[in-house]
Amino acid sequence: MQVGERIFEQIQEPDARPKLMIATRVFGASGQPWMWRQVVGFQGFRKELLCWERQNAGTQPTNDVREHVLPGKLAPYHNDGRWLYRSRAIFNGSFYAAIGEERTRLKELFDKDRPDVILCNFGDIAMRLLPTAREAGIPLIAYFHGDFSFIRNRWYRWSLYRCLHDFAAIVVVTDAERQWLREHGAPEDKIHYIPCGAPTDVFRPVPERSDDLVRFIMVSRLSEEKGCDISIRAFSEVAKVNPKVRLGIFGDGVERENLGELVKRLGLVDKVTFHGFIDELSLAKKLPLHDIFIQHSRIKEGSPVSIVEAMSCALPVVATTIGGITDQIATGQNGYLVSEGDIEGMIAAMQRLAADPVLRKQLGAVGRERAVACHDAAKQTRRLGELVMDVTRMSSMKLQGALAS
């Protein structure tokens, strides 16, 4: 180095973007692509992810997100161990609050990484993190997804009542959730209706096929609450009067073996195909090759993304009046709704659509328009991101006001 030579160190400007931490029980689950879309779609934040289990990292990567996976399992909610947990958690303000070593880990993480705001997917996770976040002075947004535990579970309801006023904001995906929260004391200005959506630029219609088969499709987790058995039984009745119908089932789950046996007993092996779980881009190619989407949800439902994907591909939908489905489907406009358990009503709707290609096209076109206008994933993620940013600004202003005083 020559005498007098100066060495300048490159000074990197600090990243002024607010730090957003997204918390959830499981991240990357095959049945929750909407969550991955939101996390990677958020703009203007330094993003961190907190979960207890990470799945499908290969197909749902988060390149610009720092991930924290907590060890151990979540608290027991439904087995015998729940009583001990509840007796300990109650001192933190709810039966779902983090306790013991887990709370210590959360406190250390919040103190070290210091997020500006936390977005918690699902009510139980929001209540789990709230006491620790409140202690650290971090605003927390609760994002409910239509599980309606607050209606069925008195322990959940009691805990939620005590947390409602401490959430910085509350996001719901169904109008029914919004109404329930209003009626039970949630501040009106904190409730925001932002249903999950689908990428309507990815899920698109295709030109009509040349064959004369009528193809029904199911896309869901193969579990009891999705009512897959009812949908298959309804299809069986349609197949008796229309030999040109077929059914494709996409997804996997605990009911896969039972559903396979049901298909055999009903003599539908040559008409029903199980495709298993496929990734988003593959599904976007397969879905529009079908004619009618069916889903007979039972008991609970949020804002089913698979229905929006079908709408986006211009498929008419036959589904139940459960959860946010009533916000997506209008009978006679872009599909048909039946009551839970009404297999005869489902059969009638399926038969009507199978017999009338003009009706299918009309209802499908309306569904596509509705998906683009009201349920596009990018638009919904922007709305959610704007809310998170507003909460961050409000928290910062309050902090500055407190310091000034």
Automatic annotation (TrEMBL):
<dbReference type="Pfam" id="PF13439">
    <property type="entry name" value="Glyco_transf_4"/>
</dbReference>
<keyword id="KW-0808">Transferase</keyword>
<dbReference type="GO" id="GO:0016757">
    <property type="term" value="F:glycosyltransferase activity"/>
</dbReference>
<feature type="domain" description="Glycosyl transferase family 1">
    <location>
        <begin position="207"/>
        <end position="369"/>
    </location>
</feature>
<dbReference type="InterPro" id="IPR001296">
    <property type="entry name" value="Glyco_trans_1"/>
</dbReference>
<dbReference type="Pfam" id="PF00534">
    <property type="entry name" value="Glycos_transf_1"/>
</dbReference>
<dbReference type="InterPro" id="IPR050194">
    <property type="entry name" value="Glycosyltransferase_grp1"/>
</dbReference>
<feature type="domain" description="Glycosyltransferase subfamily 4-like N-terminal">
    <location>
        <begin position="98"/>
        <end position="201"/>
    </location>
</feature>
<dbReference type="InterPro" id="IPR028098">
    <property type="entry name" value="Glyco_trans_4-like_N"/>
</dbReference>
<protein>
    <submittedName>
        <fullName>Glycosyltransferase family 4 protein</fullName>
    </submittedName>
</protein>
